[in-house]
Request: fold
Amino acid sequence: MDYGLPLLRALIEHFRKLPGIGEKTAKRLSFAILDMKTEEVNDFAETLLQVKKRIGFCRRCGNLAESEFCQICNDKSRTEGILCVVERTADLYILESTHQYRGCYHVLHGVLSPLDGVGAEDLNLVELEKRVREENIREVIVATNPSVEGDTTALYISRMLEKYGVKVTRPARGLPLGSSLEFVDSGTITRALENRESI
Amino acid sequence: MIVRAIEIRNFRNISRAALSFSGTFNLITGRNAQGKTNLLEAIHLFSLGRSFRTRRSEEILMFGEDYMFARLSCKSDSSVDFRLEMSLEREGNIKASINGKRISGMSEIIGVIPTVIFTPGDVMLASGPPGGRRTYLDYTAAQVSPAFLSDLKSYRKILKQRNVLLKGYADTGRMSGEIDAWDEQLVEKGAKIVSGRKDMLGETSLVAADMLEEILPGSEPLRMVYECSFDPEGNGTADAFRKALHAVRPGERRRGHTMAGPHYDDVAIYLGKTGLRRYGSQGRKRLVAIVMKLAQAAAIMKRRAERPVVLLDDIFSELDAEASTRVGSLLSDKYQNFITSPGTEVLPRVTTETSGAVLYSVASGVFSSGKELRCGVGVET
Reply:
């Protein structure tokens, strides 16, 4: 059903390819575009093109960057010597939003998952090893997700870096802050008890 | 836990049913292929999140219908009423909700209604292939410990991932460096699976031994021992697993799958000093299988402090009158029981004479109205 408007259908299909967008939302967005002023649409389209054209990956850490290095790598106030390894750039922005971590990052662009055809050579690991070798890194925090694949990737990294004598850590797992025990699932509680700390 | 009522639409041959149940014995009679087991399957659907008979969910949809719906009204031992719903549309996945709230993953539903089921195939539990005994322990442990369930799911995932790597090696002759990391993950979760299973077996084996002693006084004592495929001595499980993986490495790389781990373990069953599997009579094997299942109910009860729902599919028609009476003496009105049978005459008296027992008969997927059987009153068949 394209209402005799194949262009509109094409637009809807493009929106539908985006994550979290179903048929209805895709239609709503498409009609919103039709309602927009021409200049606005021009701006929008131009931004889409420019984003793709100008934003690439930082040569050093794999973060998104408009130039050779990303903003974080260019920031002199960042603590050198500490690296936080994340699965994807989106995770980096989540960690950044805390404004607490002042070290540098390294983005893997995935996790080990043979089922999806992802092996060590598909991840940004060669660069990570090079950084540890050359940048005088003291600690590598592996903040991959606490899934089977994320855990295995963390283990792989810790083994890969063993010979450099660098400290490899993993963020603690346990009870979420501001929550009460009754709302926490029992798997998390079990893990939190395993990782208990003395006070 | 008590299942108070069920409503069913288009589940296998049951096009529509609304039944309310007794908290003690629910007897479902009918000739073969009329829908007795289908009712147990529908109840059990809420325990596992999928059918115990098939992994293909479309099979439970009534032939030619577009949707299936089932609702279970329950009362927990702490007297809280709640309802569970499951629905399935043609070419869709099963959707479940608890008290009207959709749940995202089926693992959320496992353990909500603690369940023990005995199907005719389970007579092989004590004497058949080891897989049945592993499932027995896994399913018991998963119902009492969400941590075990999560470890079990992780273990299976790691196993799949690792097998893909090994398969790749078998096909190409190149081994990726990350195999060591997968090995370590497998070892860590595998060790937890073994310890969880041993813990569960410790709980069930004593109860099962007592039960067998009760129904066969003077018989050689029943012993069940966890046989860890990679750790016969039973100490330092993770280390033993690591060593075993190392030892099978060449074979694994040739064949392309994981050749050591708790997925090869077994439970050895003895009567006295004799192995049941090899030397036990058919009758003994059957009785041991039954006490293992009933011990499962006791173990769940103890660990969960919640009474399990016991589903017994046609177990009495396989037993002679004497054995049937003995097994009947183990059944308890402490639990809610669902018992299918071709007729009431093969059922032990306890099931028909306990007050509040309810009898349904089913023909072509249609249930007769539930009849309450009173103590001492003769039972029609």
